[in-house]
Write a structure and sequence with these properties.
- With 296 residues, this protein is of the alpha/beta class.
- It is built from 10 helices and 7 strands.
- Helix 2 crosses helix 3.
- The radius of gyration is 22 Å and the shape is globular.
Length: 296
C-alpha cells in the first residue's frame, strides 16, 4: 500500500514492528501480509476515518481484504498490550540516545464528541476534552505517559501519583533521571510537585505562578533558569505531530485504556523511524569508509 498517509515503509515494519507482534500458537495462520495490516492501522489513525469506510480512498485493495480483518487485529493487539510493549521496548533500546538531562512535562487535550470516560468541559478549549500528561526528553521525544484525566481539572490534579507512575515506568525501561532538570510551565507550580522532584534528585525548573499577587512573594527565591526553560517548547512540536492524527485529535473511543494504547502506538512509530534513520546513516558511513579504503 502506497499512500501519503502511511509514511512507514514496508521494510521498516518488517524489521522493527513485526518481530514484536506475538504469533498464534495454534489455529489458522493469516494468509494476508501483516505489514499491510499495520499500514492500514496507521492510515486509520492518521485520517480518523470510520472503520467501515477504511478502503474508500485506498486503491488496489482486493475484496477478500475487508475492514473487519484490520479491526480484528487492531483490537486483538490492543488487548494484548502489544503497542505498550513496543513503546517500552524501544525506550529500553534507545535509552542511551535520549537527552535525559533536560526533561519536559506538559499536557495535551483531545476533544470528545460522545460520552466517554474522563471527560469534562474545558473553558479554554470551549468544549468537552480529555487531558493526558506527557513527559519528553530534551529533544522532544516522548518517554512517559500519564493516565487520562477530565479536561475540567487543572494541571496539578493528582500530580504526585501521575509523576510517580511516570518515573516508575522509566525505571522499568532502565532510564536514569537522577540529577536531571524538569521544565514545566507555571500551571505546574506547586509544592507537591516540587517536593516529588527533589525526593528523586530532580531539579524542578518551573516558572513561578504569581497567582494575582500585587507584591513579590516573601522568602527565598526559587531556582529558575530562563535559558533552559526556553527549550521546553520542543513539546509543542510533539503535540503538533500528535494532533495530525485525527483519531487522537477528536476522541470517539469510550474507554481510557484505548486512548492510551493509541498514544503508545504512535510513540512506537516515532522510535521505529528513529531506529531506521540511525541504521541507514550508519550504513551510509560504512559504505563511504569502504569506498575510501578501496580507492587507497
Amino acid at each position: 500500500m502506497n499512500n501519503k498517509y502511511a509514511k512507514v515503509t514496508k521494510n521498516q515494519i518488517e524489521t522493527f514492528i513485526l518481530p514484536l507482534i506475538p504469533k498464534n500458537k495454534r489455529g489458522f495462520s493469516c494468509t494476508f501480509g501483516m505489514s499491510e495490516i499495520v499500514q492500514f492501522i496507521i492510515y486509520k489513525l492518521k485520517t480518523g476515518v470510520q472503520w467501515d469506510c477504511l478502503f474508500v480512498d485506498i486503491e488496489n485493495v482486493t475484496p477478500p481484504f475487508s475492514w473487519q480483518l484490520v479491526y480484528y487485529y487492531y483490537r486483538k493487539w490492543s488487548k494484548l498490550g502489544v503497542f505498550k510493549g513496543m513503546f517500552e521496548m524501544y525506550l529500553y533500546l534507545q535509552k542511551d540516545k535520549l537527552d535525559t538531562e533536560n526533561l519536559n512535562l506538559d499536557g495535551t487535550h483531545s476533544y470528545a464528541k460522545k460520552s466517554c470516560e474522563s471527560v469534562g468541559y474545558q473553558h479554554r478549549k470551549k468544549g468537552k476534552t480529555s487531558n493526558v500528561l506527557i513527559m519528553t526528553d530534551g529533544r522532544g521525544i516522548p518517554i512517559a505517559i500519564g493516565s487520562v484525566q477530565s479536561g475540567n481539572h487543572n494541571d496539578l490534579y493528582q500530580i504526585v501519583p501521575e509523576f510517580s507512575a511516570m518515573i516508575k515506568s522509566l525505571n522499568r525501561c532502565g532510564i536514569v533521571v537522577e540529577n536531571s532538570m524538569l521544565n514545566a510551565d507555571k500551571g505546574f507550580d506547586g509544592r507537591k510537585l516540587r517536593r516529588a522532584c527533589r525526593r528523586r534528585n530532580i531539579e524542578p525548573n518551573i516558572k513561578e505562578n504569581n497567582r494575582n499577587r500585587k507584591k513579590p512573594k516573601r522568602g527565598k527565591k526559587r531556582f529558575f533558569n530562563e535559558n533552559v526553560y526556553k527549550r521546553r517548547f520542543v513539546n509543542e512540536r510533539t503535540f503538533a505531530w500528535l494532533d495530525s492524527f485525527k483519531t487522537l485529535l477528536i476522541r470517539f473511543d469510550k474507554l481510557d485504556i484505548i486512548l492510551i494504547k493509541i498514544i503508545c502506538d504512535l510513540f512506537s512509530e516515532i522510535y521505529g523511524n528513529c531506529v531506521a534513520r540511525r541504521q541507514s546513516t550508519l550504513l551510509n558511513h560504512r559504505n563511504q569508509i569502504l569506498y575510501i579504503e578501496n580507492a587507497l
